[in-house]
Amino acid sequence: MDGFIRRMQENTKPGGYNAVGVFTNRLPATPDNAPFTHSLFDVGELPAKYEGWEIVHHLEGTFKDTHPGDIHHEHAYERIIARKIK
């Protein structure tokens, strides 16, 4: 994921925006998702990757989700919209 974010940043012109959402470790990966979850971001890690950018929007929290088979669980997330200054 770090490489992907770095490439997004490198290919964003000054004044351009990045919008990014990730799952965080505020909650552990759910048993049904654990086989597909290679890593979770630390809470606060995403905006830290945008040091020197203007953080236009930042939201961190949890949401309830339901998957086929009537599987209910909760995910933790963090999202930002950042504008490249230089």
Please give a structural write-up.
The protein is an alpha+beta fold. The protein has one domain: Rossmann fold (3-Layer(aba) Sandwich), CATH 3.40.50. The chain contains two helices and three strands; from the N terminus they run H-E-H-E-E. Strand 2 and strand 3 form a beta hairpin. The longest helix is centred in the first third of the chain and has 9 residues, at 2-10.
Largest sheet: 3 strands, antiparallel
Named CATH topology = Rossmann fold
Strand content: 35-45%
- SSE series: HEHEE
* Count of discrete structural domains: 1
| Low-pLDDT windows of residues | none
In the CATH hierarchy, the architecture is 3-Layer(aba) Sandwich
Strand order of the largest sheet: 1-3-2
What are its keywords?
about 90 residues, alpha+beta, Rossmann fold, 3 strands, about 40% strand, elongated
Topology:
Elements: H1 2-10, E1 17-23, H2 45-48, E2 54-67, E3 71-83
Antiparallel strand pairs: 1-3, 2-3
Brief overview:
This protein is an alpha+beta fold. It has helices at residues 2-10, 45-48; strands spanning 17-23, 54-67, 71-83.
